[in-house]
Each structure stands twice: as C-alpha cells, then as structure tokens.
C-alpha cells in the first residue's frame, strides 16, 4: 500500500467524544462575543427613529436570534457528547420526578395540559447522575408538552420496579407519531419540530445506556406517546 493510500487508525468513541465536546466548547466563546457586540450595537441604535435605524435594529434582532439558536444547538451537542462522563450516586427517582413536575407545572397549566404522577413509594434509590437524569426527564416532559400545545391534554409520569430495574414512564395522550417518524426518532439531527436540534431523544437514550439502562418509545397516530426509561438497580436491590 502506498503512503497516499494509508489511513490513520480510527479514533475510539471516548476520544472522539472529547474532541467533539472540546470543539463545541471553543465555538461557544466566539458566539458569546458576537452576541455581546450585537447587544451593544442595539443599544447604539436604540434612540434613533430613522428608517435606517429601524432596519438596522430588525437586522440585529435577527442576528441575535440566530446566535441564540446556535448556542442552543451547541448546548444540546455538548450534552450529547458528554454522556460518557457520569457522576453517579444513590438517587431517589421519585424526588427527581417531583422536581421536574414542579418546574413545568405553571407553563403546562397555562396551555391546558394536566400533569399526573403515579409513584412507587417502595422504589429503592438508583445509582444515577442526578443532574443529567433530571435534564433527560425534563426533555421527555417538554417533548410531551409540545405535542399537546395546540389542544391541551394529559401527561402522566409513572415510576415502578420491574425485575432488576427501576422504570420511569412519561405518557401523553397527544396526537402520537406516524410510523416513519417513530422509526427515525433516535436518529441524530432528525427533528420534525421547527428549530429542533434533533439531539433530544438521542441524548436521553445515550444517557440511559451510559447508566446501563434503556430508553424505548412507543407511539402511533391518535394514541399518544409513551417513553420508557429503565435504570438497573444495584446488585443488593436486585436480589431483594
């Protein structure tokens, strides 16, 4: 094989994840600088009511929106890239559910969405990265809420034990997904939502798998959507 035909050995997933995360982090710094200078320019044009000033302010507003959108994409990507770095500790799954419900309740009520919880009070603590799993659960609940935004409806959060696993379900009675959308819902960068990054569900599944668990999504048109997270209990609890 000639030198031109040789290729470098492929990077292992952890190295690739670190490189991608580092690149995303580096991109955030200039974006923050751009956002700051756009805000300063807006202030400079704030008191001018000329036609040129109004056009400039509209342009600056559009640019700020795009910077915010890019920052959001980078935040989603960083969460996706860093799922291999867990700080796991015994965590009450029910407490996480209650925290997320308290956070989303006001907005859910405003758009006519009813939240209900059915929690297994005998569920033992689970070895989790609390912050990451809370963010993942919030992602699932927000997905369900967005599916219900036009007509309202119900979101139900359930915890239970199933064999050697702690199970967390997020169920909505929204419009559900077509079969082709359900088939692709874990594809990176695939999204049916305007402005969606397409990293939400892939990140939640990567996080579940990093904990030794799984994420499954069941859905069909007219029958809502059920997302099921499973996290393994420790060996002692598995034997109990």
Outline the structure in words.
The chain is an alpha+beta fold. It folds into two domains: 13-81, Helix Hairpins, CATH 1.10.287; 89-239, Heat Shock Protein 90 (2-Layer Sandwich). It is 51% helix and 18% strand. The strands form two sheets. Strands 2-4-5-7-6 form a five-stranded mixed β-sheet, with helices on one face. A two-stranded antiparallel ribbon has the order 1-3. α2 runs parallel beside α6 (200-210) and α3 (93-110) packs parallel to α4. The longest helix has 33 residues, at 13-45. The radius of gyration is 22 Å and the shape is globular.
Q: What general outline do the C-alpha atoms trace?
A: globular
Question: Structural class given helices, strands, pairing?
Answer: alpha+beta
Q: CATH H-level name of the largest domain... which superfamily?
A: Histidine kinase-like ATPase, C-terminal domain
Q: Separation of termini? A: 59 Å
**Helices and strands, in N-to-C order?**
HHEHEEHEEHHEEH
CATH class of the largest domain: Alpha Beta
**What does the average pLDDT come to?**
80
What value does the Rg take, in angstroms? 22 Å
Number of structurally distinct domains: 2
Instruction: Find the CATH topology of the largest domain.
Output: Heat Shock Protein 90
Low-confidence stretches: 1-12
Report helical residue fraction: 40-55%
Q: Main beta sheet: strand number and arrangement?
A: 5 strands, mixed
Q: How many helices in DSSP terms?
A: 7
What fraction strand?
15-25%
CATH architecture of the largest domain: 2-Layer Sandwich
Q: What's the total number of strands?
A: 7
Spatial order of strands in the largest sheet? 2-4-5-7-6
């Amino acid at each position: 094989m000639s030198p031109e035909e040789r290729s470098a050995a492929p990077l292992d997933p952890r190295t690739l994840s670190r490189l991608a995360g580092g690149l995303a982090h580096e991109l955030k710094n200039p974006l923050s600088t751009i956002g700051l200078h756009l805000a300063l320019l807006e202030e400079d044009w704030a008191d001018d009511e000329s036609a040129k000033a109004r056009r400039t302010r509209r342009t600056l507003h559009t640019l700020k929106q795009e910077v915010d959108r890019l920052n959001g994409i980078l935040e989603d990507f960083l969460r996706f890239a860093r799922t291999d770095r867990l700080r796991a500790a015994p965590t009450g799954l029910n407490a996480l559910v209650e925290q997320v419900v308290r956070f989303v309740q006001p907005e859910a009520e405003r758009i006519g969405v009813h939240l209900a919880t059915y929690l297994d009070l005998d569920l033992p603590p689970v070895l989790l990265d609390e912050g990451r799993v809370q963010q993942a659960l919030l992602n699932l609940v927000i997905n369900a809420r967005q599916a219900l935004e036009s007509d309202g409806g119900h979101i139900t959060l359930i915890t239970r034990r199933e064999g050697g696993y702690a199970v967390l379900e997020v169920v909505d009675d929204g419009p559900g997904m077509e079969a082709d959308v359900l088939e692709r819902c874990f594809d990176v960068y695939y999204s049916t939502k305007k402005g969606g990054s397409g990293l939400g569900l892939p990140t939640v599944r990567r996080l579940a798998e990093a904990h030794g668990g799984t994420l499954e999504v069941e859905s069909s048109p007219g029958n809502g959507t059920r997302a099921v997270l499973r996290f393994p209990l420790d060996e002692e609890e598995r034997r109990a």
